[in-house]
Amino acid sequence: MNSDTLHNINMIAETARDFAEKNIRPYIMEWDESQTFPVELFHQLGEMGFMGIVIPEEYGGSGLGYHEYVAILDEISQVDPSIGLSVAAHNSLCTNHIYEFGNEVQRHKWLPQLASGKVIGAWGLTEHNTGSDSGGMSTTAVKDGDDWILNGAKNFITHAISGDIAVVMTRTGEKGARNNSTAFVLEKGMPGFSSGKKENKLGMRASETAELIFDNVRVPDANRLGEVGEGFKQAMKILDGGRISIAALSLGTARGAYKAALKYSLERQQFGRPINQFQAINFMLADMATEIDAAELLIQRASNLKNAKRPMTKEGAMAKLYASEACVRIANNAVQVFGGYGYTKDFPVEKFYRDSKLCTIGEGTSEIQRLVIGREISK
C-alpha cells in the first residue's frame, strides 16, 4: 500500500471518526436502552457516502475499496458497534448483492437509492429452523406466469422493519436438492410482504432485528437476481465479503473497549499509583493491543484479496474468526480492568461487552468459520 493510499485511508477514517463523535456518541445509551433504530442517522450516513462505500460511482456509490470500508466500520464501531453493524449489513449484504449479481437495469434501479441512504436495505437468508443449515430453507418461490409467489418467513433480519428494499433467498427446488435456491429483490409495500416481531437483544440494541414475512407475495420475474437456482451460491459469495465486514466490526468494537480500558488504567489510582503500573493489568492491556494488531493484519490480507477480486474464502473466514473471538476476549478483559465500575452503565465497557458477542454469531458462527477454513486447507 503506497503513501497516497494510506493518506487517503487516514483522511476517510478521520472523517468517519468526526462524524461518529458528533452524531452518534451523544445518543449511544439513549438508543441502546430504548432500542431505537435511528433511521435519520442513516440518511446522514448516506450523505457522507458511507451507505454505498464499495459501490462504483456510476451507480451512485463512493467507489472506494475494502481498506477504506474497513476503516469506516472500525471508526464507527469504536463509538457504537450497533451502528457499525447496521452500516455493515446495509453495505455488504443487500447493496452488494444487487451490485454483484444484478443486471444493469436492476443496478441502476436500486443501487443509487441504497447508496444515497435514502432507502435502507435488508438481506434475508436465516430462518427459524435454518440457521447455519441455510440450504434447508422453507421460504418458497413458485413460478406463476411472469411472476413468482413467495411464502414463508425469515428471522434475525437486520432492518426488517425499517428497510425499504430486501434481497431474499428463497427455495425454488426440492428441500436439500442442489441448486434449489433463487434470490429476489422485494420492496416495501408489496402486498403480503410485512415484518414481524422485533427481537429484544442482549446487545447491538440500536441495530434493528426482526422477522420478514411473505404471505403470497407476488414478485415480478424482473426482480430475480441472476439465474434460477443460483441463490445459495450467490449468498455464499456475499458472505465471503460479509466476513470482512464483521471482522471490521469486531476490530472497532475491540479497539473501543481497549481504548476505554487503557485510559481508565492510567487514571485509576490504587495503592498510590495508576493501576496501569501493576503487571497484572499491564500484561492484560499488552495482550489486548497485540490481538487487535493481529486481527487488523488478517483483515488487511483479506481486503487485499477482495480488492484484487481474487479468492478469499479462507482468508475472510480466518479474519472473521480471529477478530470476533479476540473482540469477545478484549471486551471481557476491559470490564475486568474497570472492576466494579465496568459492570455499571455509567462506563462504556459494559456495552462493548454486550455488543461483542454478536460478532462470533452473526454472518456465520465461529464454528462455521472453522468448518470453512478446514475445508479450504484440506483441498
Description:
There is one protein chain. Strand 9 and strand 10 (273-274) form a beta hairpin. The longest helix has 37 residues, at 231-267. The chain has a 4-stranded mixed beta sheet, covered by helices on one side. Strands 2-3-7-6 form a 4-stranded antiparallel beta sheet, covered by helices on one side. Strands 9-10 form a two-stranded antiparallel sheet. With 379 residues, it is α+β, with helices and mostly antiparallel strands. Helix 1 (3-23) packs parallel to helix 4, helix 7 (231-267) runs antiparallel to helix 8 (279-307) and helix 8 packs antiparallel against helix 9 (313-338). The protein has helices spanning 3-23, 28-34, 39-47, 66-79, 81-101, 104-116, 231-267, 279-307, 313-338, 349-356, 366-377; strands spanning 121-124, 140-144, 147-158, 165-171, 181-187, 193-198, 209-220, 224-225, 269-270, 273-274.
What's the gyration radius in Å?
Answer: 21 Å
State the secondary-structure class. Answer: alpha+beta
Physical arrangement of strands within the biggest beta sheet: 1-4-5-8
- The CATH superfamily title of the largest domain: Butyryl-CoA Dehydrogenase, subunit A, domain 3
Overall pLDDT: 96
Taken together, the total number of domains comes to 3
CATH architecture of the largest domain: Up-down Bundle
Pick out the low-confidence regions. Answer: none
Total of helices:
11
* Coarse shape: globular
Largest sheet: 4 strands, mixed
User: Approximately how much helix is present in the residues?
Assistant: 40-55%
- CATH names the topology of the largest domain as Butyryl-CoA Dehydrogenase, subunit A, domain 3
Written as H for each helix and E for each strand, in order along the chain, the element string is HHHHHHEEEEEEEEHEEHHHH
Question: Beta-strand level of the residues, as a percent range?
Answer: 15-25%
How many strand elements? 10
Q: For the terminal residues, how far apart are their CA atoms?
A: 30 Å
Oligomeric state as shown: single chain
Overall CATH class of the largest domain: Mainly Alpha
